[in-house]
Known about the structure:
Blueprint (H helix, E strand, L loop, with lengths): L1 E2 L13 H11 L3 E4 L6 H13 L2 E12 L2 E8 L11 H27 L6 H8 L5 H10 L6 H9 L14 H10 L3 E4 L9 H10 L4 E6 L4 H14 L2 E5 L10 E2 L3 E2 L9 H6 L2
Parallel strand pairs: 1-2, 2-3, 5-6, 6-7
Antiparallel strand pairs: 3-4, 4-5, 8-9
Bound molecules: adenosine monophosphate, fe (iii) ion (2 copies) and zinc ion (ZN).
The site of zinc ion (ZN) has 5 residues, from loops.
Amino acid sequence: MIDLHSHTTASDGTFSPAQLVEEAGRTGVRILGITDHDTFSGFDQVRPLARQAGLDLVCGIELSTKLHGYSVHLLGYFLDPFLKPDGLGDFRTWIGDLQASRRDRNVRLIARLRELGLDITLEEVQARGGGMTGRPHFAQVLIAKGYVSSLQQAFDDYLDESAKGYVNRHEPTFAEAVKHIREAGGIASLAHPIRIREDVATILPELCAMGLNAIEAYHSDHSPSQTALYLELAAQHGLLVTGGSDFHGAVKPEIHLGTGRGGNLRVPEDLVDRLRAG
Length: 278
Ligand code: AMP
Ligand code: FE
Ligand code: FE
Ligand code: ZN
């Protein structure tokens, strides 16, 4: 089994990188892509362990970008056998800037929530978020303090782009992020296209012109007919295909590594060979 989309405690997952490697072994995932938000640190931590465990670990990342004024996720994969993830110098410097913008956003988000009358501190949120504190960690604190009863309510009432607590964060444009991934020798894949607010078929030519070279046709949120549509679009536009569960551990307990939501995911094994062939 293969799964090219997963998160660890290095971003907003609840499994440590080592626990995720163990979960891959337990569930029969043989090729695992770690795609934490804006960081390689989970991947970096667990490379030797994965090698020992005989797991084929793929270096990935999930970036939040701005497209047509709203937020779109983009996956980057660095799996050319000649490309060493350690060698991604400029790219790693660039994601350092993204991490700084996230920290700046977190400070302003705390101020905004306090202005709305909530008793919440940066320390509390960072205690849950570790190195890469994000809005899901804010949501956890709001739940723990009884302000909301669920992750969804935390986003609906406070944290979503359309909610009253939202503060903007500098995010790279989709085009800029694609360019950085491609210049680093990576594969840029449109993450969970079902969440795009516009008609994907309509905007895809524009995204391809920016250098997008893959699409995540297989994802836990996709129905079989949606997957079929994205596969067809990939063929039409000459895009590579990626896929994965988007495993986050206990914060999204219905999603399982490798098999998705209630077994709805089956990522073809030969997909990685095609990605590696470029
Ligand atoms: P951040 O990276 O801190 O801006 O947080 C983004 C993360 O929050 C995403 O990767 C999602 O996991 C989660 N998220 C964003 N919007 C929502 C929403 N409306 N409902 C639930 N989770 C969301
Ligand atoms: Fe996430
Ligand atoms: Fe995502
Ligand atoms: Zn994800």
